[in-house]
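So, can you check?
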Amino acid sequence: MISTLLDRFGGWPDPSSFRPTHIVEVDLDEDIPAMTASGPARVLVRRSGRPVAFVPVTVPDEGLTPEEVRKALDEAIASEGYPAEPAHAEAQAVAPVRATVVITTCVATRGLLRVLDDVRAQTITPHEIVVVDNRPNTSGVTDLFQQQGIDDVRLVLEHRPGLSRARNAGLAASTGDVIAFLDDDIAVDSRWLEAITEVFRQDPSVACVTGMILPMELETPAQYLFEEFGGFSKGFHQRRYDLKDHRGTSKLYPYAAGVFGTGANGSFRVDALRALNGFDEKLGMGTPAKGGEDLDIYLSVIQSGRTLVYEPAALVWHQHHREIAALRHQIFNYGVGMSAMIAKRWWANRQERPEMLQRLGAGVKHVLGPGSPKHQTKTSSYPRALTLIELGGVIRGPFAYWRSRRHRVS
Protein backbone atom coordinates (compact mmCIF):
# COMPACT_ATOMS: atom_id res chain seq x y z
CA MET A 1 0.00 0.00 0.00
CA ILE A 2 1.21 3.50 -0.83
CA SER A 3 1.09 4.67 2.80
CA THR A 4 3.34 1.80 3.86
CA LEU A 5 5.87 2.54 1.13
CA LEU A 6 6.02 6.19 2.17
CA ASP A 7 6.76 5.36 5.82
CA ARG A 8 10.49 5.18 5.04
CA PHE A 9 10.57 8.95 4.38
CA GLY A 10 9.79 10.06 7.90
CA GLY A 11 10.14 8.83 11.48
CA TRP A 12 7.35 8.40 13.96
CA PRO A 13 7.32 9.63 17.57
CA ASP A 14 8.64 7.31 20.24
CA PRO A 15 5.58 6.25 22.29
CA SER A 16 7.75 5.82 25.39
CA SER A 17 8.59 9.53 25.38
CA PHE A 18 4.99 10.67 24.93
CA ARG A 19 3.08 12.10 27.89
CA PRO A 20 -0.72 12.01 27.64
CA THR A 21 -2.39 15.41 27.69
CA HIS A 22 -5.21 15.89 30.20
CA ILE A 23 -8.32 17.65 28.90
CA VAL A 24 -10.07 19.88 31.41
CA GLU A 25 -13.06 22.22 31.22
CA VAL A 26 -13.18 25.52 33.15
CA ASP A 27 -15.87 28.21 33.15
CA LEU A 28 -14.40 31.59 34.15
CA ASP A 29 -17.81 32.73 35.39
CA GLU A 30 -17.99 29.88 37.89
CA ASP A 31 -15.74 28.59 40.67
CA ILE A 32 -12.43 27.51 39.14
CA PRO A 33 -11.08 24.18 40.36
CA ALA A 34 -7.48 23.44 41.23
CA MET A 35 -5.52 21.31 38.76
CA THR A 36 -3.75 18.49 40.57
CA ALA A 37 -2.78 16.08 37.78
CA SER A 38 0.74 17.04 36.74
CA GLY A 39 1.92 17.18 33.14
CA PRO A 40 0.57 18.71 29.93
CA ALA A 41 -3.08 19.72 29.79
CA ARG A 42 -5.46 21.40 27.37
CA VAL A 43 -8.16 23.49 28.98
CA LEU A 44 -11.45 24.27 27.31
CA VAL A 45 -12.24 27.71 28.68
CA ARG A 46 -15.85 28.85 28.81
CA ARG A 47 -17.58 32.09 29.73
CA SER A 48 -21.19 31.66 30.83
CA GLY A 49 -21.13 28.23 29.24
CA ARG A 50 -19.89 29.40 25.84
CA PRO A 51 -16.48 28.03 24.72
CA VAL A 52 -13.93 30.79 24.14
CA ALA A 53 -10.51 29.09 24.14
CA PHE A 54 -8.68 25.75 24.17
CA VAL A 55 -5.34 26.54 25.74
CA PRO A 56 -2.28 24.47 26.67
CA VAL A 57 -1.20 24.48 30.31
CA THR A 58 1.68 22.61 31.94
CA VAL A 59 0.81 21.55 35.47
CA PRO A 60 3.82 21.19 37.82
CA ASP A 61 4.19 18.29 40.21
CA GLU A 62 2.73 20.38 43.05
CA GLY A 63 -0.32 21.22 40.96
CA LEU A 64 -1.99 24.60 40.39
CA THR A 65 -4.24 26.45 42.80
CA PRO A 66 -7.50 27.97 41.47
CA GLU A 67 -5.81 31.38 41.47
CA GLU A 68 -2.86 30.05 39.47
CA VAL A 69 -5.22 28.34 37.02
CA ARG A 70 -7.08 31.59 36.38
CA LYS A 71 -3.86 33.54 35.92
CA ALA A 72 -2.50 30.98 33.43
CA LEU A 73 -5.75 30.97 31.46
CA ASP A 74 -6.05 34.77 31.40
CA GLU A 75 -2.48 35.08 30.11
CA ALA A 76 -3.00 32.44 27.43
CA ILE A 77 -6.25 34.00 26.23
CA ALA A 78 -4.68 37.45 26.05
CA SER A 79 -1.60 36.26 24.13
CA GLU A 80 -3.34 34.00 21.62
CA GLY A 81 -6.06 36.36 20.37
CA TYR A 82 -9.05 34.39 21.56
CA PRO A 83 -12.40 36.21 21.80
CA ALA A 84 -12.42 38.50 24.82
CA GLU A 85 -16.14 38.10 25.43
CA PRO A 86 -18.81 35.83 23.95
CA ALA A 87 -20.50 37.31 20.90
CA HIS A 88 -24.26 37.71 21.11
CA ALA A 89 -26.28 38.83 18.12
CA GLU A 90 -29.75 40.30 18.52
CA ALA A 91 -32.37 37.85 17.37
CA GLN A 92 -35.00 38.75 14.81
CA ALA A 93 -38.65 38.09 15.56
CA VAL A 94 -39.10 34.80 13.70
CA ALA A 95 -40.78 31.50 14.47
CA PRO A 96 -38.96 28.84 16.51
CA VAL A 97 -36.85 26.36 14.58
CA ARG A 98 -37.78 22.66 14.65
CA ALA A 99 -34.59 20.62 14.48
CA THR A 100 -34.22 17.05 13.29
CA VAL A 101 -31.05 15.38 14.60
CA VAL A 102 -29.71 12.63 12.31
CA ILE A 103 -27.07 10.19 13.55
CA THR A 104 -25.45 7.92 10.98
CA THR A 105 -24.02 4.56 12.01
CA CYS A 106 -23.13 1.13 10.68
CA VAL A 107 -22.47 -0.81 13.87
CA ALA A 108 -24.09 -1.09 17.29
CA THR A 109 -21.71 0.44 19.83
CA ARG A 110 -21.74 2.09 23.22
CA GLY A 111 -20.66 5.23 21.37
CA LEU A 112 -23.99 5.30 19.55
CA LEU A 113 -25.85 5.03 22.85
CA ARG A 114 -23.68 7.84 24.26
CA VAL A 115 -24.55 10.13 21.35
CA LEU A 116 -28.25 9.38 21.81
CA ASP A 117 -28.02 10.17 25.54
CA ASP A 118 -26.21 13.43 24.73
CA VAL A 119 -28.87 14.45 22.22
CA ARG A 120 -31.65 13.70 24.70
CA ALA A 121 -29.83 15.85 27.30
CA GLN A 122 -29.73 18.99 25.13
CA THR A 123 -30.87 22.29 26.63
CA ILE A 124 -33.58 22.39 23.96
CA THR A 125 -35.54 19.35 22.84
CA PRO A 126 -35.06 18.16 19.26
CA HIS A 127 -38.13 17.99 17.07
CA GLU A 128 -37.13 14.40 16.29
CA ILE A 129 -34.12 12.05 16.45
CA VAL A 130 -33.35 9.84 13.45
CA VAL A 131 -30.72 7.10 13.36
CA VAL A 132 -29.72 5.87 9.92
CA ASP A 133 -28.30 2.34 9.92
CA ASN A 134 -26.09 2.01 6.84
CA ARG A 135 -25.28 -1.68 7.38
CA PRO A 136 -28.60 -3.08 8.62
CA ASN A 137 -27.93 -6.72 7.75
CA THR A 138 -24.94 -6.98 10.08
CA SER A 139 -24.82 -3.86 12.28
CA GLY A 140 -26.92 -5.16 15.17
CA VAL A 141 -28.50 -1.72 15.64
CA THR A 142 -32.08 -3.02 15.45
CA ASP A 143 -31.33 -5.64 18.11
CA LEU A 144 -29.58 -3.04 20.27
CA PHE A 145 -32.60 -0.74 20.17
CA GLN A 146 -34.90 -3.63 21.12
CA GLN A 147 -32.62 -4.69 23.99
CA GLN A 148 -32.35 -1.12 25.30
CA GLY A 149 -36.07 -0.42 24.86
CA ILE A 150 -35.34 2.62 22.68
CA ASP A 151 -38.66 3.91 21.36
CA ASP A 152 -38.04 7.66 21.06
CA VAL A 153 -35.84 7.38 17.96
CA ARG A 154 -36.85 6.76 14.37
CA LEU A 155 -34.63 4.06 12.87
CA VAL A 156 -34.08 4.30 9.10
CA LEU A 157 -32.50 1.36 7.29
CA GLU A 158 -30.32 2.34 4.31
CA HIS A 159 -29.01 -0.82 2.65
CA ARG A 160 -26.96 0.92 -0.03
CA PRO A 161 -23.48 1.56 1.43
CA GLY A 162 -22.06 5.06 1.65
CA LEU A 163 -22.11 7.91 4.13
CA SER A 164 -23.72 10.27 1.61
CA ARG A 165 -26.52 7.78 1.01
CA ALA A 166 -27.03 7.46 4.77
CA ARG A 167 -27.25 11.21 5.22
CA ASN A 168 -29.61 11.56 2.29
CA ALA A 169 -31.81 8.85 3.81
CA GLY A 170 -31.93 10.94 6.98
CA LEU A 171 -32.79 14.01 4.92
CA ALA A 172 -35.64 12.15 3.21
CA ALA A 173 -37.02 11.11 6.60
CA SER A 174 -36.73 14.56 8.19
CA THR A 175 -39.87 16.52 9.09
CA GLY A 176 -38.09 19.44 10.77
CA ASP A 177 -37.13 22.88 9.50
CA VAL A 178 -33.45 22.23 10.18
CA ILE A 179 -31.47 19.00 9.96
CA ALA A 180 -28.35 18.51 12.09
CA PHE A 181 -25.99 15.62 11.31
CA LEU A 182 -23.82 13.78 13.82
CA ASP A 183 -21.49 10.79 13.59
CA ASP A 184 -21.55 7.98 16.15
CA ASP A 185 -18.00 8.51 17.49
CA ILE A 186 -18.51 11.80 19.28
CA ALA A 187 -19.77 13.33 22.51
CA VAL A 188 -22.15 16.27 22.25
CA ASP A 189 -22.06 19.41 24.39
CA SER A 190 -25.39 20.05 26.10
CA ARG A 191 -25.80 23.45 24.37
CA TRP A 192 -24.92 22.17 20.88
CA LEU A 193 -28.44 22.17 19.45
CA GLU A 194 -29.33 25.43 21.17
CA ALA A 195 -26.35 27.13 19.52
CA ILE A 196 -27.25 25.77 16.09
CA THR A 197 -30.91 26.71 16.19
CA GLU A 198 -30.09 30.16 17.58
CA VAL A 199 -28.04 30.98 14.48
CA PHE A 200 -30.82 29.81 12.19
CA ARG A 201 -33.39 31.68 14.26
CA GLN A 202 -31.43 34.93 14.29
CA ASP A 203 -30.92 35.02 10.54
CA PRO A 204 -33.38 33.37 8.13
CA SER A 205 -30.86 33.85 5.28
CA VAL A 206 -28.46 31.28 6.79
CA ALA A 207 -28.68 27.94 4.97
CA CYS A 208 -25.94 26.01 6.78
CA VAL A 209 -24.32 26.06 10.23
CA THR A 210 -21.18 24.13 11.09
CA GLY A 211 -19.81 23.70 14.59
CA MET A 212 -16.58 23.19 16.48
CA ILE A 213 -15.06 19.74 17.01
CA LEU A 214 -12.47 19.21 19.74
CA PRO A 215 -10.57 16.04 20.66
CA MET A 216 -12.25 13.83 23.22
CA GLU A 217 -8.82 12.71 24.39
CA LEU A 218 -5.14 13.29 23.63
CA GLU A 219 -3.66 10.15 25.13
CA THR A 220 -1.63 8.68 22.26
CA PRO A 221 0.89 10.00 19.71
CA ALA A 222 -1.59 9.35 16.89
CA GLN A 223 -4.22 11.58 18.50
CA TYR A 224 -1.71 14.35 19.06
CA LEU A 225 -0.43 14.10 15.48
CA PHE A 226 -3.96 14.44 14.16
CA GLU A 227 -4.27 17.74 15.99
CA GLU A 228 -0.96 18.83 14.43
CA PHE A 229 -2.34 17.80 11.06
CA GLY A 230 -5.04 20.40 11.66
CA GLY A 231 -7.67 18.60 13.68
CA PHE A 232 -11.28 19.58 13.20
CA SER A 233 -11.55 22.87 15.08
CA LYS A 234 -11.95 26.06 13.03
CA GLY A 235 -11.40 28.42 15.95
CA PHE A 236 -13.44 30.24 18.58
CA HIS A 237 -14.70 33.16 16.50
CA GLN A 238 -18.05 32.89 14.77
CA ARG A 239 -17.49 33.27 11.02
CA ARG A 240 -19.89 33.98 8.19
CA TYR A 241 -19.25 32.92 4.57
CA ASP A 242 -20.98 33.88 1.33
CA LEU A 243 -20.18 35.20 -2.15
CA LYS A 244 -20.61 38.86 -1.23
CA ASP A 245 -19.16 40.58 1.82
CA HIS A 246 -17.91 37.53 3.72
CA ARG A 247 -15.55 35.79 1.34
CA GLY A 248 -12.73 34.88 3.69
CA THR A 249 -9.10 35.84 3.17
CA SER A 250 -7.73 32.85 1.26
CA LYS A 251 -6.86 33.24 -2.42
CA LEU A 252 -8.51 29.86 -2.88
CA TYR A 253 -11.89 31.01 -1.58
CA PRO A 254 -14.36 29.40 -1.80
CA TYR A 255 -12.42 26.28 -2.85
CA ALA A 256 -10.47 26.06 0.40
CA ALA A 257 -13.60 24.32 1.61
CA GLY A 258 -11.95 22.98 4.76
CA VAL A 259 -12.39 26.37 6.43
CA PHE A 260 -16.15 25.89 6.50
CA GLY A 261 -16.31 22.98 8.91
CA THR A 262 -16.51 19.19 9.08
CA GLY A 263 -19.30 16.80 8.17
CA ALA A 264 -19.43 15.25 11.65
CA ASN A 265 -21.00 18.52 12.89
CA GLY A 266 -22.97 20.18 10.12
CA SER A 267 -26.57 21.35 9.92
CA PHE A 268 -28.79 22.77 7.18
CA ARG A 269 -32.15 24.25 6.49
CA VAL A 270 -34.02 21.25 5.15
CA ASP A 271 -35.49 23.09 2.16
CA ALA A 272 -32.05 24.43 1.16
CA LEU A 273 -30.36 21.03 1.39
CA ARG A 274 -33.13 19.42 -0.63
CA ALA A 275 -32.88 22.17 -3.24
CA LEU A 276 -29.17 21.31 -3.57
CA ASN A 277 -30.10 17.61 -4.00
CA GLY A 278 -28.46 16.62 -0.75
CA PHE A 279 -25.04 15.00 -0.54
CA ASP A 280 -23.32 13.70 -3.67
CA GLU A 281 -23.57 9.92 -3.42
CA LYS A 282 -20.43 9.46 -5.53
CA LEU A 283 -18.43 11.03 -2.72
CA GLY A 284 -17.92 10.06 0.91
CA MET A 285 -16.91 7.03 2.93
CA GLY A 286 -18.26 3.83 1.45
CA THR A 287 -17.32 4.92 -2.09
CA PRO A 288 -13.98 4.73 -3.93
CA ALA A 289 -13.71 8.51 -3.34
CA LYS A 290 -13.32 7.89 0.43
CA GLY A 291 -14.61 11.34 1.47
CA GLY A 292 -15.10 14.90 0.31
CA GLU A 293 -18.90 14.87 0.51
CA ASP A 294 -18.93 17.44 3.31
CA LEU A 295 -16.51 19.78 1.52
CA ASP A 296 -18.62 19.43 -1.61
CA ILE A 297 -21.95 20.31 0.00
CA TYR A 298 -20.48 23.27 1.90
CA LEU A 299 -19.02 24.57 -1.35
CA SER A 300 -22.38 24.05 -3.06
CA VAL A 301 -24.08 26.11 -0.34
CA ILE A 302 -21.70 29.01 -0.99
CA GLN A 303 -21.74 28.73 -4.80
CA SER A 304 -25.54 28.74 -4.80
CA GLY A 305 -25.49 32.23 -3.27
CA ARG A 306 -26.53 31.01 0.18
CA THR A 307 -24.85 31.76 3.53
CA LEU A 308 -22.88 29.41 5.79
CA VAL A 309 -22.01 30.25 9.40
CA TYR A 310 -19.35 28.56 11.51
CA GLU A 311 -20.56 28.68 15.13
CA PRO A 312 -18.00 27.53 17.75
CA ALA A 313 -20.63 27.25 20.48
CA ALA A 314 -22.09 24.28 18.56
CA LEU A 315 -19.50 22.03 20.17
CA VAL A 316 -18.91 18.30 19.94
CA TRP A 317 -15.98 16.14 21.05
CA HIS A 318 -14.48 13.62 18.62
CA GLN A 319 -12.85 10.28 19.41
CA HIS A 320 -9.63 10.49 17.39
CA HIS A 321 -7.96 7.26 16.27
CA ARG A 322 -5.57 5.95 18.91
CA GLU A 323 -3.26 3.97 16.62
CA ILE A 324 -0.73 5.24 14.07
CA ALA A 325 -1.89 2.73 11.44
CA ALA A 326 -5.46 4.06 11.63
CA LEU A 327 -4.17 7.65 11.46
CA ARG A 328 -2.18 6.90 8.30
CA HIS A 329 -5.27 5.41 6.69
CA GLN A 330 -7.39 8.38 7.74
CA ILE A 331 -5.01 11.00 6.37
CA PHE A 332 -4.58 9.10 3.10
CA ASN A 333 -8.37 8.99 2.74
CA TYR A 334 -8.60 12.73 3.47
CA GLY A 335 -6.20 13.39 0.60
CA VAL A 336 -8.25 11.17 -1.70
CA GLY A 337 -11.53 12.78 -0.67
CA MET A 338 -10.28 16.33 -1.07
CA SER A 339 -9.02 15.93 -4.62
CA ALA A 340 -11.97 13.67 -5.56
CA MET A 341 -14.23 16.56 -4.57
CA ILE A 342 -12.25 18.96 -6.78
CA ALA A 343 -12.42 16.46 -9.66
CA LYS A 344 -16.18 16.15 -9.18
CA ARG A 345 -16.71 19.88 -9.34
CA TRP A 346 -14.54 20.17 -12.45
CA TRP A 347 -16.49 17.39 -14.11
CA ALA A 348 -20.01 18.31 -13.03
CA ASN A 349 -19.94 22.12 -12.83
CA ARG A 350 -18.52 23.51 -16.05
CA GLN A 351 -19.38 27.06 -15.04
CA GLU A 352 -16.89 26.74 -12.17
CA ARG A 353 -13.95 25.72 -14.36
CA PRO A 354 -12.66 29.27 -15.02
CA GLU A 355 -12.66 29.96 -11.27
CA MET A 356 -10.82 26.71 -10.59
CA LEU A 357 -8.20 27.43 -13.24
CA GLN A 358 -7.58 30.88 -11.74
CA ARG A 359 -6.89 29.25 -8.37
CA LEU A 360 -4.73 26.40 -9.63
CA GLY A 361 -1.43 27.99 -8.59
CA ALA A 362 -2.77 28.97 -5.19
CA GLY A 363 -4.07 25.43 -4.74
CA VAL A 364 -0.69 23.85 -5.45
CA LYS A 365 0.95 26.30 -3.03
CA HIS A 366 -1.70 25.52 -0.42
CA VAL A 367 -1.00 21.78 -0.62
CA LEU A 368 2.79 21.86 -1.04
CA GLY A 369 4.00 25.19 0.33
CA PRO A 370 5.68 24.89 3.75
CA GLY A 371 4.32 28.32 4.71
CA SER A 372 0.76 27.43 3.74
CA PRO A 373 -1.96 27.82 6.40
CA LYS A 374 -2.54 24.11 5.91
CA HIS A 375 0.83 23.38 7.54
CA GLN A 376 0.91 26.08 10.25
CA THR A 377 -0.06 23.75 13.08
CA LYS A 378 2.66 21.21 12.25
CA THR A 379 5.81 21.20 14.38
CA SER A 380 9.28 20.23 13.24
CA SER A 381 8.70 16.74 14.64
CA TYR A 382 5.62 16.13 12.50
CA PRO A 383 6.46 12.99 10.44
CA ARG A 384 7.23 13.80 6.84
CA ALA A 385 5.70 10.43 5.98
CA LEU A 386 2.24 11.71 6.96
CA THR A 387 2.56 14.67 4.60
CA LEU A 388 3.63 12.34 1.80
CA ILE A 389 0.84 9.90 2.60
CA GLU A 390 -1.69 12.71 2.27
CA LEU A 391 -0.10 13.82 -1.01
CA GLY A 392 -0.37 10.25 -2.27
CA GLY A 393 -4.08 10.40 -1.51
CA VAL A 394 -4.40 13.72 -3.32
CA ILE A 395 -2.81 12.18 -6.43
CA ARG A 396 -5.16 9.23 -6.27
CA GLY A 397 -8.33 11.27 -5.69
CA PRO A 398 -9.32 12.09 -9.30
CA PHE A 399 -8.90 8.44 -10.32
CA ALA A 400 -10.93 7.38 -7.28
CA TYR A 401 -13.71 9.77 -8.27
CA TRP A 402 -13.74 8.30 -11.77
CA ARG A 403 -14.11 4.81 -10.27
CA SER A 404 -16.91 6.13 -8.05
CA ARG A 405 -18.75 7.50 -11.08
CA ARG A 406 -18.58 4.10 -12.75
CA HIS A 407 -19.48 2.23 -9.57
CA ARG A 408 -23.11 1.18 -9.22
CA VAL A 409 -24.79 -0.07 -6.08
CA SER A 410 -28.30 -1.47 -6.31
